[in-house]
Amino acid sequence: MRNRLTDDDVREAGRALAGHALRLPELARARTVAAYVSVGGEPDTRALLDALRARGVRVLLPALLPDNDLDWGEYTGPDSLTEIRHGGKMALFEPAGARLGPSAVTRADVVLLPGLAVDARGMRLGRGGGSYDRVLDRLERAGARPRLVVLLYDTEVVVRVPAEAHDKPVHAVVTPSGTRHFTGD
Questions:
Q1: Could you give the CA distance from residue 183 to residue 50 in angstroms, rounded to a whole number?
Q2: Among 83, 40, 33, which Cα is nearest to 63's?
Q3: Which of 163, 156, 171, 108 is nearest to 135 (CA)?
Q4: How many CA atoms lie within 13 A of 27 on its CB side?
Q5: What's the pLDDT score for residue 3?
């Protein structure tokens, strides 16, 4: 479905998604948010990143390491991004400034996660690289308990996704048409 979206579709979905996300109590209280810059057909996150920053929120963005783990840097606006191509993978927009280390994410109040789908249990299906599985494991090992929110299209909220023993549910999903919190929050 994402491959059929136009650039205008992606931008419009991103604006709608940002509006709903900004009304989440989790984000209203957050002082630090770990987020990401969308790529390809993912719902556009740039409006949300700028709105968070305008609220005075510290926004951390990932930088992909050679082993698929994530380092973090601060987002200070569109000029703080650089486009990086990692081997044969798609180009990613990463923070151009100083790296804060993989553990910087443990100081986030909310972690915004990319994904391909989420199910009724809050189980998120990622892209298969394991980068965010490492992030979630790092949070658990550090005793950090940020709110986990996945950003998706409406059609990507499904009945069930495959899950493995190490997978952890998210607390909420935000789509262009609204938000949903999962039980157990």
A1: 30
A2: 83
A3: 108
A4: 26
A5: 82
pLDDT score, position 151: 97
- pLDDT tens for 58-99 read 999 999 999 999 999 999 999 999 999 887 777 899 999 999
Place of tokens 């987002």: 75
Cα separation, 80 vs 62, whole angstroms: 13
User: 20: exposed, middle or buried (C-beta count within 10 Å: 0-12, 13-18, 19+)?
Assistant: middle
**What is the edge-to-edge ordering of all strands in the sheet holding 110-113?**
70-75, 58-64, 32-34, 110-113, 147-151, 172-175, 178-181
Q: What is the pLDDT of residues 34-46, one digit of tens each?
A: 999 998 889 999 9
Instruction: Taking the CA atoms of 148, 152, 157 and 162 in sequence, report the sign of the dihedral they define.
Output: negative
pLDDT of residue 120: 94
pTM of the model: 0.94
Q: Which residues lie closer than 8 Å to 1 by C-beta, 6 or more apart? A: 153, 155, 156
